[in-house]
Amino acid sequence: MKQSAVYPGTFDPITLGHVDVVNRGLKLFDHVVIGVAENPNKEPMFDLEARLRMVSQTFQDESRVEVVAFSGLLVELAQTQKAEAILRGLRAASDFEYEFQMATMNRRLDEKIETAFVMAREDYTFVSSRFIREISSMGGDVSALVPESVIPYLEGSK
Prior knowledge:
By secondary structure, the protein is an alpha/beta fold. The chain has helices at residues 16-28, 48-58, 74-80, 93-109, 129-137, 151-156; strands spanning 4-9, 31-37, 65-70, 85-90, 114-119.
C-alpha cells in the first residue's frame, strides 16, 4: 500500500533545511505532499502564489512530491490528501515542545493520522526562513542556504 505524508509550512521562502526534511521524508514515505499554508496571520514576505512557485520549482524533478496550497486545519489537508502521516522537521530541542503540542492536538482531531518527526541535518539546524529574509533584505548572501530557484525571488524583493 502506498504510504504518504503531508509536510506543512509557510515556506516563506523554502530553505535547504526544508528540502532536507522532504528528502528524509521520501526515505520513509512513498509520496510527500507539501502543503503551503496561506497563513495571512504571519504576514509573509512572498504571496501564496510565489511561495507555491518556489516550492514547485524546487521539486520539479521529483515525481513523488506534490505541492498544494491550503488554509484551515492541517488534519483536514491530510484527510483530503489521504495521507497517513504529517511530516515535521526538528532543528533543535527547542522545537520539540511546540511540535509535541501540535502533534498531540492533531491526534486529538484525527487519531488515524500519525506525526513523523525527522531531525534536520546539522548543517541546517540554524537555518530558518526568518533568518533568510532578514539576511537577504540587508544584502547578505544566502545562496548556500536556499534552493537555487529561490534566489531570483529574494533578489526581486530588495
